[in-house]
Amino acid sequence: MNWRGTVWRAARLLSLGGVLMVVAACHTPAPGTFERLKEGMDRTEVLALMGEPSSRYPAQLNKSGAVDVPARWQYGDNLSSIATSSMFQDQPPPSRVWVIYFDASARVSGWQKPEWER
Question: Which of 54, 99, 100, 105 can pair with 77 through a Cys bridge, CB separation 3.0 to 4.6 Å?
């Protein structure tokens, strides 16, 4: 078998995998779904309405155990916003993503649209 053909096939497969990862990470909510969110919805209801988030972040607690940054799901992430949010979880989410916040009982406590949609 020709080794160049094998390398070329492997490179195409890796490229396709990379494209699929980027597309999967960029999940944005369908038009109109964000407007149907309600405070108090549980995570199952949010999944049914919005679909799978592009990223999920647990609540960040301070030294006394109080919540500093609530748990949140983000929609519309790209690789840059995922990396930023992962590295700086105690910082507010990027202004270019949809964000849903959850309270300690895993119910919706608030949300924000991306800056460009406000």
Answer: 54
DSSP string, 21-77: HHHHHT--PPTTTGGG--TT-BHHHHHHHH-S-SEEE--EE-TTS-EEE-EEEEES-
CA distance 103 to 110: 9
Distance CA 75, CA 55 (A): 7
Which range of residues forms the domain containing residue 113?
Answer: 27-117
3-class DSSP state of 95: coil
Residues constituting the chain: 118
Determine, yes or no, domain membership for 10.
no
In a domain, 35, yes or no: yes
Spatial separation of the C-alpha atoms in residues 45 and 31, rounded to whole Å: 17
Pick from 17, 38, 31: nearest CA to 100: 38
Predicted pLDDT of residue 85: 78
Query: Total domain count for the chain?
Result: 1
